Amino acid sequence: MTLGMVFATGLAATSVAAQDVTLRGASMFDEQHAFTKTMQKFAELVNENYDGEVTFDLRLNGELGVESDYLTFLQQGVAVDYTIMAPSNMAKFSPSIPLMDMPFLFRDLDHWNAALSSDVMKPLEEELLEKADIMIIGYTGGGTRNLLSKDPIANLDDLNGHKMRVMGAPIQAQIFSALTAAPSAIAYNEVYNAIQTGVIAGFENEAASIQNLKFYEVAPNVTLTRHTITVRPIVMSGKTFRKLPEDLQAAVLKAGAEAGTFGRELESSEDAVKLQEMIDAGQIKVQEFENRDQLLEMVLPVQNEYANSLGAADLLEAIRAK
Ligand code: MAV
């Protein structure tokens, strides 16, 4: 039993259709963020689809840490039962999973939608389950990641040697190194201070999170590299899932898929709106990156090499072909 889960005592899991269960979730953000709204939607849908009573104990504002902490909790089956997290924060246990959110993977929102509405990511899901005991029960995301920096970055010359934070997966650092930047992996909750104190000059993120965590206060320059459309799995600890009665497991899977669709529509449609809100409020200055297409050419060999090293060249081709 995980810390977040309490079963009615004296009832064998298989003998009752309805049990009282508490599931604990974690969000790094407040109620306004798409991830939080998606997890609230998930809770609502589970209770709609299930005869028993499920209590959702969703902890907000990073109360339970950041995604790298959630990863350990989920893998061990303690403290957190479900959350939404970046594949590139799950590389520690599953080297292949960051393939699904590496920069420049998707051409546009249609491509991203087509891939996430299919089962093309299945082999990556299987590895995550096998190696980390974490289940993907739905896909949300849909924010577009751009560069965010203290000083403006207009082109490759400015990017050269730019000290920036990236997520923990080695492929993230490899890609930004190929773009001649100087990336380092820093925990998300240290980024604000690291920019403020000059340890790094910037990072990359999507509008919803920039706005929610007020990163514009230390890095007000946004460069529209549009290098990633985010893929954010809704995940549950395998240890939690296996303890649920079968009909609740079915409700969780259905609710996860539906909440994912809800979250994708929400964040992708809010992305430009949120950027504009921050521009209008004088919080950010936005500019295009000169010769953005050149970036794509520079990262293709890195993507290919990474996929080859995982024995996933066919998978990468299948994603590209969606
Ligand atoms: C954004 O807040 C989200 O995409 C989140 O899932 C990531 O972990 C975070 O950025 C990050 O850059 O680590």
Automatic annotation (TrEMBL):
Source organism of the structure: Harenicola maris
Subcellular location: Periplasm
GO cellular component term of the entry, any: outer membrane-bounded periplasmic space
Superkingdom per UniProt: Bacteria
InterPro entries documented for this protein: DctP_fam, TRAP_DctP, TRAP_DctP_sf
Swiss-Prot/TrEMBL keywords: Periplasm, Signal, Transport
Protein name: TRAP transporter substrate-binding protein
GO terms under biological process: transmembrane transport
Family, per entry: Belongs to the bacterial solute-binding protein 7 family.
Keyword Endoplasmic reticulum on entry: no
